[in-house]
Amino acid sequence: MLMGNDDAAMIKMKWGHLGKILHIDLSAGNSRVEEYDADFALKYIGGRGFGAKIVMDNLKKGIKPLDPENVIVIAPGVLSGLYLPSSGKTAFVPISPLTGIYADSNMGGMLGVEIRQAGYDALVICGRAKEFSYIWIDDDIVEIRDASKYRGKKSTETERELKEDLRDEGIKVATIGPAGENLVKFACVNSEWSRNAGRTGMGAIFGSKNIKAIAVRGTKDLPVYDMNKLVELSDKAYKTLQDHPMMKFWQEEGLMSVIDYANKLGIIPTRNFSDAHFEDADMINGEVMTSRYKIGDSACYSCPMACGNICLVKSGAYAGTVTEGPEYESAAMLGSNVGINNFSAILRGNYLCDELGIDTITSGSMIATIIDGYERGLLTLEDVDGIALSWGDDSSIMHLLEKIASRDGIGDVLAGGPYGVIRKFPQLEPIISHVKGMDQSAYDARVGVTMALAYATSDIGAHHARAWPIAKELEVGADWTLEEKVDLVIYHQTIRPLFDMLGVCRLPWIELGFDENAYAEFYSAATGVRVTLDDLLEKSRSVFNLTRAINLYMGVERADDYPPERTFNDPIKTGPHVGEHLDRDLFDHMLNIYYERRGWDENGRPSDEQLRECGALGLFKSQLD
Amino acid sequence: MDRNRDKKQVSTPQTLTLTVVPERCSGCRTCEVVCAIHNNKVNNPKKARIRVLSLYPQPVIMMPIVCKQCNDPKCMESCPTDAIYIENGIVKINNRECIGCHACVVSCPFGAIYMHADLNEPIKCELCDGDPQCVKACPKNAIIYVPQHTLGQANRLIDTLKYAHLNEMQYFEHGVEKKLSYAQIKTGGLRKDKVKQGKEPGDADGK
């Protein structure tokens, strides 16, 4: 439990952690700093771990995501800001407006580093500001200030004006665009031009709290237990990454290289996941980007991989569009999934999403759904505001993005996410690929049962952040048991969230095979607490039980742990996996194995022992009272 | 300014110079954290001697800003207590003389001198005793430490090669594919059709 300032028995963590959490109560218009003890630090590590625990402590029966009582925790990890590869991550953790259950989304860039340098391991924001406001954190000074002049402004515009008004180019700003103000359920929080806490609707939470932005200036030292050791480890780590044969290619193409890979494997989302192979993939791949659009690299804090690609459209209808991105998910969801084969249009879509403050993945998914619905005759021309939708019609797709952000006409329906669309147009349910209200990310799950299991059991809905086992599954082929497949999903769901707890990026590990054991050494050097990777994984597993407990409390049950219905009954139409779909009995069997391997009962409830261990047993005790 | 001239006389020109290539910078700020750790022994980019200024979206630029060790430094000229001096071509601050008035910070035309509330004296690059840590740490090779006389060499080369209209041909030597670049000099020098084509793999070439 968190302890108050005056608790004499409190044992502080002296290194690594700063020991302080900043609580901002917008309704009361004040803030307070809470110190936490070593138990809390050791058990929940930081980032997503801190967020999950704090969100759980604030749960109430019947809490609605956009209620003032819902908290949003913004928590960098214990390694954020330190000298080690890619340590610029921050987790945003609330109950999500998109799904109504636990959610987290992580943002790269520098925001987390700045928050830590201001002296806080986490910001906890609750309540609702009376006036439209922004939060200004200048080390120890915390102010809630009038933001009326920024109302309706786009992301980079707001960031630029805040920097000018606060007379400091070095501050970090996290802001919402017009979509967040309009409570679009998949609005994102944007920082530094194109770093986003993209998924699960963080921007709508900001909007519901009547805040436009958070501006932070932090100047403090980050405490490191053994600096010499950290430097020694990190020098080695940077050298390993620099010498990697794929490093140069990564800096060049970044995640855009996945387009060709996913297309070759037949898992690229195409025309609302109807196909899993895009015939024009070579018009929207990494090579097209580097040869015709890319003008520069960009990187998050202390990251040698620099997977951000700054692109400029030099001619055509979208000439003058300059944006950072896209990466694979955005390019696929705003490209192949809506039938666009014009890279300039993808860049334009990416640019609009960033500026308006909406998630590229859900936007692409929702637009694809209504185009599909219209083409299949499930929607009338009147339903879609008289826009004659068709695959690849980029001008009407750009128009729809703007309609979503302003909640105009059909845009208002799409702004509700999968649940909102199904409520208005129940006939579209069979063609929406979602789990727990979160639309599926850009990997087809019909090809590999592990990916289906990953989407189905992810604690935030059908997102690849928790597990991405499909590459391994397609590599290994049929030659492994169901138990091995389940174990791979669980391993991914354990190690990948660990990165979000430490506040570092997982891409060096995933893409360049960087040794994950190094993170235990980084943790030990930073905090002075000797741990192995297994110790850390144990804590991550515990946090997964905790988020599961939150979801059960919010009403999730076994029936919600299934992949999108289409995975079972709508075979792939084209590509190397034509005709494939999943077998429901097989999946059912796998889900049983999954629960068993996790130590959960047949309805997916963790054991009392597990719940006690992660601190969530109280949730169920109060239910009985 | 006589005092400056005096100081210049006792200094000898440095041989290596620290310079940046902003087009290569990704804005990751590894240089900042490495600098602060090396010079201040703390993990705090806000105490670094080199900082990256990122501007976006229009224009997009990421510029690492660091002292250029000017030959005739404005900071030295502006210092009211003569705390700034040149030693072996490096502009240094004598902390005992410095009164913390920030005159050097504002007078530097590049804004390459910084302040931090924890520190009395300004933060300024002194080239890490001839082994700048940021140069080694930069993952994009955007910070370079080269002999002064080679500055501009890359541009000279690029421009020359562009002018010379570079061509490339492939040939095989002992069955190994090789590439040769040559300039198509218009006034009759080397011409493409005169270049003897190499042997194909499998030819009995010295085997």
Polypeptide structure, described:
- The complex is a heterodimer of chains A (625) and B (207).
- Chain A is of the alpha+beta class.
- Chain A folds into three domains: 20-217, Aldehyde ferredoxin oxidoreductase, N-terminal domain (Aldehyde Ferredoxin Oxidoreductase,  A, domain 1, 4-Layer Sandwich); 248-433, Aldehyde Ferredoxin Oxidoreductase Protein, subunit A, domain 2 (Orthogonal Bundle); 449-512 and 532-624, Aldehyde Ferredoxin Oxidoreductase Protein, subunit A, domain 3.
- Chain A contains 26 helices and 17 strands.
- The longest helix of chain A is centred in the C-terminal third of the chain and has 21 residues, at 482-502.
- Chain A starts with 19 loop residues before the first strand and ends with a helix.
- In chain B, 23% of the residues lie in helices and 21% in strands.
- The A-B interface holds A 81-83, 110, 113, 117, 156, 169-170, 192-193, 218-224, 227, 230-231, 238, 241-242, 251, 295-306, 308, 310, 322-324 and B 23-24, 26-30, 33-34, 37, 41-47, 51, 53-54, 56-58, 60, 62, 116-118, 137, 139-140.
Identify the CATH class of the largest domain in chain A. Answer: Alpha Beta
> What is the CATH level 1 assignment of the largest domain in chain B?
Alpha Beta
Placed side by side, the strands forming the largest sheet of chain B appear as 1-6
Helix and strand run of chain B = HEHEEHEEHHEHEE
- Ends distance of chain B: 74 Å
Q: What is Rg of chain B?
A: 24 Å
- Largest sheet geometry of chain A: 6 strands, mixed
According to DSSP, the number of beta strands of chain B is: 8
Instruction: Find the CATH topology of the largest domain in chain A.
Output: Aldehyde Ferredoxin Oxidoreductase,  A, domain 1
Instruction: Identify the CATH homologous superfamily of the largest domain in chain A.
Output: Aldehyde ferredoxin oxidoreductase, N-terminal domain
First-last Cα distance of chain A:
21 Å
Number of domain modules of chain B: 2
What radius of gyration of chain A results from the CA coordinates? 23 Å
